[in-house]
Amino acid sequence: MKIVVTGTRGIPLIQGGVETHCENLFPRIAAMGNDVTIIRRSCYVTSENSVKDYKGVRLKDIFAPRKKSFEAIVHTFLAVIAARRMKADILHVHAIGPSFVVPFARLLGLRVVMTHHGPDYDRQKWGKLAKAMLHAGERNGVKYSNEVIVISNVIREIVRSKYHRDSNLIFNGVDRPEKSKNIDYIEHLGLEKGKYVLALGRFVKEKCFDQLIDAFQKSRHDGYKLVIAGDADHPDAYSEALKRQAAGNGVVLTGFIKGERLNQIMTNAALFVLPSTHEGLPISLLEAMSYDLDVLVSDIPANKLPELEEKDFFRCRDIQSLADSLSAKLSENRVGRTYDLSNYDWDNIAVQTMSVYQKVVSSK
């Protein structure tokens, strides 16, 4: 089966939840004997990831303007044309913004699977016009795709209630890591094993890292440091202000990291915190759980995984609630938690995704 994938910035070594999803899923799809091509946005291709294939997945680079308002829609339009020329059996579109062009893909005769990763119109970075386009993208993707995949029960209910359509629930996944035995990178950052709180993600408003910094200063955290791993895709006033706030409060910023550096940071943290107001099914949280870390997350529906406990949540947007919860977690210093991650196995996720493809190809 020839499968063409778009909607992602690309793989490998590109920041983002959809990107991590694709980096884990599609090598497994390719290993099943399929011809898989991921179409990457040219503006994210660097000397570090300028390759033609990744673990059996072909990589095709197509122009995308490095401007958040137009990047996804321009690139996906061009990707649809490329998929038609490649005579794809399946065009798999990720996220609701890129899904705006699904009707165009169907008019070209393509069979389309859309994965809904979350209601991106809730993100604070978008203005009214962009939010309207994202709503339209969600509508076009859900109504006109041959099949819709959702990554959480929360998103499945959105699809059912707004569009009266059934969807295929296939969770995000995570691999059990081989934890790093090294500490040279964290020592380089001035960190001590088991004596720092970790947050991870893009520097955008809905991640609420500014509120996390304020709450950390209010909390009782003797001997602990705060580390935020990540960066902005598109530097703006918020991300620059966040970096100044971090520098003024002794917060360690690592930038975007992968591989051994991320492994060391995750292996040796005391606590993982996710304070965001918007998520689909956060891969960063699943990754923290795979490292057996104690976690503290906002009480939004997407974060309420059945594997977590009540004391793992704080009231979203409530800095004092976050500060109090941080104090409680750090005083307890709970280490070596284990979680049942059987629902998030990438191999099973690949099999489930293939079954959706086969349903589409076999239908008239």
From TrEMBL:
Domain Glycosyl transferase family: 191-304
Domain Glycosyltransferase subfamily 4-like N-terminal: 16-175
Residues in the signal sequence: none
Gene Ontology MF terms in the entry: glycosyltransferase activity
UniProt-listed Pfam families: Glyco_transf_4 (PF13439), Glycos_transf_1 (PF00534)
InterPro entries: Glyco_trans_1, Glyco_trans_4-like_N, Glycosyltransferase_grp1
Full protein name: Glycosyltransferase family 4 protein
Organism: Candidatus Limisoma faecipullorum
Lineage: Bacteria, Pseudomonadati, Bacteroidota, Bacteroidia, Bacteroidales
